[in-house]
Write a structure and sequence with these properties.
665 residues; alpha+beta; seven-stranded mixed sheet; elongated; disordered N terminus
């Protein structure tokens, strides 16, 4: 159901038929049809009763078996559509005309039973998607002063503060302003382990950009709080929440046809008229064959049943529905059949660096002291000075430097900080001047930088690291190396991707080539291209597309949107809560985890394999049954049994995707 309250119908038939027995009325009617048919047949063959009783039972079998078929056929005919339901009714009516009441009843019984079971099986896949809509609670505890009031989530406004009780669902997208707890984010991101969350430092600050919100303070509607109470400031209304957008996009994905489905639709446009023409011609077979017109009519009706493309029509949509539902449960949003199929045939992947292959923030990787200075003293001086700066590199030095020092170490204060634009900073520390920065900072200070120190700096820069040289008074005492480090599981993930057959993995980044090469070497990329502008990334994607049959671009969905648009499949990292990423990508990894990529590709390959299997089954059955009925080797009863059996096989085969589990994940 979409936001307007309307149901989306998958391609094929809409078999949500309910009645006096509730939602399973169609199934009960099919069973009653079967009971009437079997009873009538047994009484006709082996009972000594009036012929009117078996006839009445066959009529009853027609009624129960044909009720929903007729109901749907009338609905389709009123729209000018003639589909399989109409063809089945014609075949059943023809059998009755020929006096073959038992076979006509059998046709309607098996057809209605097949559709009822198909509806039940497809409902299993739909429940996986419908379950998403049940994730968000319907009410929230709105804080008003020192009191709370239970309100409908639709009435929540941006800026409202809601209270989340322990072990309850979170009612809205927001920022934690009070409390700390672990939150189970699996419903949105697919993460199996709860994530620790805490309140933001400044609860009065206005957070209007996704990237400005600390991950450890952001929560999503539909996720589950742990053992502690939280107070959350609402940042999105219910209709705009990440969960609401996810539900809508998953439902819309059902309507996006895959390449295979488009191909089968085109095939059916020529196939159905051809079958109708064949059936009409077979009615006149008695003119050239030694048989009666009734026998020719029976043959044509049998062919009509045999040639029904019901299994073909449902084979691809059922697999796409199951695949999209399974992906959503695993924290991957796949926007329809095309990206679901394309993802499985990728031969190359292009990655953005920052925030995709790397953590997206600088980290202190090296603290190298010179001569008589200890590493501890070097870090104490660096931390004391950098604590006075709000530069991202300074914050990294303070954060990571403190983690490398003993907990009880005393760090003296620095003062009189002065920034030197683009070069570094200087400050006073225990009566001495401290300079921290790049080589250019020291060009005009005293006698510049000694050659042996320059060599050490260049060596560290050669590893792709940002280097900060430290001078205490007139003496160079050491240097720091910082780098946006690779994600913890990046190397392992790329190794898995190689194992499943991805031949080429390339980095496209705006960072300098040395940094790109260093990261690529560490995590095992096949190639790295640095210093690229957004338009140059697009050109790189176009070149790679000529070399490789299918290529995906993986990025954050913001800066990489143009490159994503020019790739076979655009994949956004960490899309939870990011409107831009959700809109621009074909596939969105809801959690900020690269390791979900092998799962998504494996699921896609499995889906494509199942679609192929379903096509072979559906086309194979038709290819066997049409000649068999033309040659009178198979009766209407046999044809409909095999036909409905094949429909169930393809649906059940597609449902296997709901249980997909990638062992490499």
């Amino acid at each position: 159901m979409d936001k307007s309250g309307k149901h989306h119908k998958e391609d094929g038939h809409d078999h949500h038929h309910s009645g006096i027995f509730g939602k399973n009325t169609e199934l009960y009617f099919a069973i009653l049809s079967g009971v009437c048919l079997i009873t009538g047949y047994l009484l006709e063959k082996y009972g000594s009763v009036s012929s009117n009783i078996p006839f009445a039972l066959y009529i009853s079998a027609y009624f129960f078996g044909g009720y929903f078929t007729l109901k749907e056929a009338v609905g389709k005919i009123s729209k000018g559509e003639f589909e399989i339901d109409f063809l089945m009714l014609v075949a059943a009516a023809g059998a009755a005309y020929l006096g073959e009441w038992a076979e006509g009843a059998l046709l309607l019984f098996l057809f209605s039973l097949g559709h009822a079971l198909e509806n039940y099986a497809m409902g299993k896949a739909k429940k996986s998607i419908a379950a998403l809509t049940d994730l968000a609670p319907k009410t929230a505890l709105l804080k008003k002063g020192t009191q709370t009031e239970e309100v409908a989530i639709d009435t929540l406004k941006i800026g409202d503060v809601i209270v989340i009780r322990p072990n309850s669902k979170i009612s809205a997208d927001g920022i934690i302003v009070n409390g700390a707890s672990s939150v189970n984010q699996a419903p949105i991101t697919g993460e199996s382990v709860p994530v620790d969350k805490k309140a933001v430092e400044n609860s009065d600050k206005t957070y209007d950009k996704h990237n400005s919100i600390p991950k450890e303070s952001r929560v999503f509607s539909g996720t589950i709080n742990g053992n502690n109470a939280l107070e959350v400031k609402v940042i999105k209304e219910a209709r705009d929440s990440t969960l609401s957008r996810l539900v809508t996009m998953v439902q819309n994905a059902q309507e996006q046809k895959s390449p295979t489905q488009l191909l089968t639709d085109k095939f059916e446009k020529f196939y159905v008229p051809s079958v109708i023409l064949l059936v009409v011609l077979l009615n006149f077979a008695f003119l050239v064959l030694d048989e009666t017109w009734s026998e020719s009519l029976y043959r044509s009706l049998a062919v009509l049943v045999a040639a029904s493309p019901c299994a073909l029509a449902i084979s691809t949509p059922s697999a796409v529905l199951s695949g999209v539902a399974r992906a959503a449960r695993g924290g991957v949003l796949i926007k329809g059949g095309r990206p679901l199929e394309d993802l499985g045939v990728l031969t190359a992947l292009a990655f953005d660096k920052t925030g995709t292959l790397t953590e997206g923030k600088p980290k202190l990787t090296d603290a190298i002291s010179f001569k008589n200075t200890s590493k501890e003293d070097l870090l104490k001086i660096a931390i004391a000075v950098e604590e006075l700066s709000d530069h991202p590199l300074a914050k990294a030095v303070v954060r990571d430097g403190k983690s490398q020092l003993p907990n009880n170490v005393n760090i003296p204060n620095a003062n009189n900080i002065e920034a030197v634009q683009v070069k570094g900073i200087k400050a006073d520390y225990q009566g001495e001047s401290i300079h921290i920065g790049n080589l250019e900072l020291f060009d005009d200070i005293d006698n510049g930088v000694p050659n042996e120190v320059v060599k050490k700096v260049r060596a560290l820069e050669g590893e792709g690291k940002t280097t900060m040289l430290i001078k205490h008074g007139k003496e160079f005492i050491g240097m720091l190396g910082l780098m946006d480090t690779p994600r913890e599981k990046a190397k392992e993930t790329l190794s898995q991707l190689k194992k499943i057959g991805i031949k080429k993995m390339i980095m496209l980044t705006g960072d300098n080539q040395k940094v790109a090469d260093a990261v690529a070497k560490e995590i095992g990329l096949t190639e790295a291209r640095g210093s690229l502008l957004p338009e140059e990334k697009v050109e790189a994607i176009k070149q790679l597309a000529q070399q490789e049959r299918k290529i995906a671009m993986i990025g954050d969905g913001v800066n990489d949107a143009p490159a994503m648009a020019n790739s076979t499949v655009g994949i956004a990292m960490g899309a939870a809560g990011s409107d831009v990423a959700l809109e621009t990508a074909d596939i969105a990894l809801m959690a900020d985890k690269l390791e979900t990529l092998p799962f998504a590709i494996g699921l896609s390959r499995n889906a494509k394999s199942i679609i192929k299997q379903n096509l072979w089954v559906s086309l194979g059955v038709v290819a066997f049954l049409i000649p068999a009925t033309i040659m009178s080797w198979a009766s209407i009863g046999i044809a409909v049994a095999i036909h409905e059996g094949s429909t169930l096989i393809v649906v059940i085969n597609a449902l296997r995707l709901l249980a997909y589990n990638n062992k490499t994940r």
